[in-house]
Specification:
heterodimer, A: mainly alpha, two-stranded antiparallel sheet, two-stranded antiparallel ribbon, 15 helices, 8 strands, B: mainly alpha, Formate dehydrogenase/DMSO reductase fold, 2 strands, globular
Chain lengths: 439, 323
């Protein structure tokens, strides 16, 4: 393995691990705050219990997220010093803001968790709300960094260095053409992922104890977020694709395995074969992508070949990742529609065992879609670390033997991941067993 | 001018990390060393002291890294290049330590589970500051990039001893009688060890980091700061003996800040010895101005929030997560 590949893999492992905790840090506080709010409105002890359990779960994940995030902040310079040197000025401001948002999240999570009865109900609710808001803000800020790398904007593409672009506009990362569509997509993915995990857990609880009011309320809360946001997320994905079609056509082409410029088909499944420029074993919708983007099945869509050979992204991995994301998203959409229809008809949460089973099975799909979407987006950005300004291979450190930290961190993250999962499982089962058949 | 402010901001973030997160490492060291019949209550006191707040303390290092990367991108790259290995090893320590602490605090695990992660927490609390200090030693040294040479390691152990010292001094301010005398004794011992290591480091710097060595001696400001630091150290020691623990805490904090400041002055404008000067690797001024402005606005929100956190968690009887 070359040091470049080792560095890329180490970054992928570190981010892929941290992203799960980042998503938890955005999504879980929302539920914690909502449960706290319901508790204060209704005085129902079930909501207190739920808020407490959300908080305890968030606390474990928040700690691991804090330290794995620190690893990333160092790895930027340790692995990609030339990138930091070139772009530090442009991406520093969103990182600084993220730092503050994270600070606030940590402080108010501490106040919420440890405040006990030394804080009044208002402070308590406000703390939960600040945790949720700053979690969201830190996700949005860090997305600005990624948006800048994906699409640094006209100034950099026109030949200015990122530092020069930042000198005339320190907020340059926030003016990236893909920033808004990305930020919306990232934020929604966090809420939808966490909501479906929660829905799966409480659906499982209801399958075991159909009479449990606790699980019924908790499931209702999860679905109140999941059902409306899932269609919005699909729309935001569609919006992202349109932005890409304008802004990074080669990236979109890689994600869709559209090799040659011309009318673009849509593929479902299969494996792209770059040698022949076809997608084998795929279900083909002729002109599908052209239609989706332009409303015309014969519209010309730039293919992977629209950029010089050296600038072309890989296709196989982005395509497969994108397919997984779309498939998972579609299933979640179907479930959401099912629940929405049932609710419109009967104004109650559906208690069909089939639906509950479907929710249990769908629990990890949001997280899977999120990770797959991230992989697709980052791999299809290649070969650039900042598009048009710097290539990944030119940014990597001159240090050698990067295989060792790769092995070390991978092993460490596997262990930490297993322990975290076991702790969470215990936490979840404690929740499931909590006053089995409680009020 | 604004470039100097940026350096000061990075320095303050590093200082804040040493005084807060640094002391938390020290708490881990004392947990590891706790022995005998009182060990259990001692560990409990140490863990409870940092449980609500260690993540907040930890954010200072993140903040220092981010400010460095924003205001001195070339400096961040140069530091990462020179101190690649000790920083990488410190990261391992940071991850293991934070995760282990959280597993033990929130896991509600068995005795064996807690003992295992408690050990991981203690060991990583001890090795991480050594690596972080060695990284500082490596970038200050111009003889070689070898972090395992005597000088960087001496800086590493100096950092560990100072953190242990801070932790023990802080504990004297919040402990009841039995533990109080224990931590007072430990603070005094750590203070002596830190003084010895400081002298050793300074002596080793003569060969390994001549720029810093001469900088300390020749610059009148750094001479004054060193003198003040020695006075603060002696004062803290005296205050410990007299039982004036809050005074000791303030002086100990000044002592650590003094050491950091003197080191920075001794490097005389360098981020990495011998020839990476901060003025030459600074980001464009508008960027620095924006980052500093964001920091000032951020701090005006942060400081009252921190005050609230400290206030609601400072009552020792309520340091357990509500059950």
């Amino acid at each position: 393995m070359t040091d470049l590949l080792a560095a890329r893999t180490l970054m992928a492992v570190s981010l892929g691990f941290h992203i799960l905790f980042g998503v938890a840090g955005i999504g879980m506080p929302l539920f914690m705050a909502l449960a706290e709010w319901r508790h204060q409105r209704t005085g129902d002890p079930i909501w207190t219990e739920l808020a407490r359990r959300w908080a305890r779960g968030a606390a474990i994940l928040f700690a691991v997220g804090a330290v794995s995030g620190t690893v990333l902040s160092f790895e930027l310079s340790l692995l990609w010093p030339a990138w930091v040197e070139l772009s530090g000025a442009a991406i520093g401001l969103p990182f600084t803001l993220e730092g503050f948002a994270f600070f606030l999240e940590a402080i108010f999570l501490g106040i919420y968790l440890y405040g006990g009865d030394r804080i009044g109900p208002r402070t308590r609710l406000a703390s939960a709300a600040v945790v949720a808001a700053s979690g969201l803000a830190s996700g949005v800020f860090v997305t600005a960094v990624n948006a800048f790398m994906q699409s640094p904007g006209a100034a950099v593409l026109g030949g200015l260095s990122p530092a020069e672009a930042a000198a005339s506009n320190p907020m340059v990362a926030f003016s990236s053409p893909v920033f808004i569509s990305k930020a919306v997509h990232v934020a929604l993915s966090a809420y939808v992922s966490v909501a479906f995990v929660s829905a799966g857990i409480h659906a499982f609880g209801l399958l075991r104890t159909p009479s449990s009011a606790f699980h019924r309320k908790a499931l209702g809360l999860a679905l109140a977020i999941a059902v409306p946001l899932t269609p919005l997320q699909i729309l935001s994905g569609d919006r992202s694709a349109r932005v890409l079609a304008e802004d990074q056509p080669a990236k979109l082409a890689a994600l869709e395995a559209h090799f040659v410029t011309g009318p673009a088909d849509m593929h479902l499944g299969g494996i792209p074969d770059p040698a022949t420029g076809e997608v084998r074993f795929a279900l083909l919708l002729p002109g599908g992508l052209s239609f989706l983007l332009h409303g015309d099945r014969d519209a010309v869509v730039p293919g992977v070949d629209s950029v010089p050979v050296d600038d072309r992204p890989p296709v196989v991995l982005p395509y497969l990742a994108f397919q997984i994301m779309v498939a998972a998203g579609t299933i979640l959409l179907a479930i959401s529609v099912w629940i929405a229809l049932a609710w419109i008809r009967s104004r109650t949460l559906p208690s069909s065992r089939w639906l509950l089973r479907a929710l249990v099975l769908a629990a990890p799909l949001g997280l899977i879609a999120m990770e797959a979407g991230w992989i697709g987006s980052e791999v299809a950005r290649q070969p650039w670390i900042v598009r048009g300004a710097q290539r990944v291979e030119d940014a990597v450190t001159a240090q050698q033997g990067l295989i060792l930290p790769l092995i070390g961190f991978t092993a460490l993250y596997v262990v930490l991941g297993i322990v975290t999962l076991r702790l969470l499982r215990r936490h979840v089962f404690a929740t499931l067993n909590w006053l089995e058949g409680a009020p | 001018m604004i470039v100097h402010l940026a350096l000061l901001a990075v320095g303050l973030a590093v200082g804040a990390y040493c005084l807060t997160g640094g002391a938390d490492y020290g708490a881990g060291l004392w947990e590891l060393l706790a022995r005998g019949p009182g060990a259990k209550s001692e560990r409990r006191a140490l863990a409870n002291a940092i449980a609500p707040i260690w993540e907040v303390h930890h954010v200072w290092v993140l903040f220092a890294v981010i400010l460095l990367l924003t205001c001195f991108p070339g400096g961040a790259a140069a530091i990462a290049d020179r101190a690649h290995l000790p920083l990488g090893l410190a990261l391992f320590g940071i991850v293991i330590r934070g995760s282990a602490f959280a597993f033990r605090a929130y896991g509600k695990g068995t005795e064996a589970f807690n003992a295992r992660w408690g050990l991981a927490y203690g060991v990583s609390s001890v090795v991480t500051p050594v690596f972080l200090g060695a990284a500082v030693g490596t970038i200050s040294s111009e003889t070689s990039g070898d972090w395992s040479a005597a000088f960087p390691l001496a800086v590493g152990f100096l950092a560990l001893s100072l953190f242990a010292y801070l932790a023990a001094v802080y504990m004297t301010c919040i402990c009841e009688e039995g533990l109080l005398s224990l931590f007072r004794r430990r603070a005094c011992i750590a203070s002596g060890v830190a003084a010895l290591l400081a002298v050793l480091t300074w002596w080793l710097a003569r060969g390994a980091a001549p720029v810093a060595y001469h900088g300390l001696l020749d610059d009148s400001w750094s001479r004054a700061l060193v003198t003040a630091t020695v006075v603060a150290a002696a004062g803290a020691f005296g205050a410990l003996l007299l039982g004036r623990f809050r005074v000791a805490r303030a002086l100990a904090a000044l002592q650590v800040l003094g050491i950091l400041g003197a080191w920075a002055l001794a490097l005389n404008g360098r981020l990495v010895a011998p020839d990476v000067f901060y003025s030459e690797v600074a980001a464009p001024e508008p960027v620095i101005r924006a980052a500093l402005l964001a920091s000032v606005i951020g701090l005006t929100i942060l400081i009252p929030s921190l005050w609230l956190l400290v206030r609601v968690t400072s009552d020792r009887s309520r340091r357990e997560i509500g059950d």
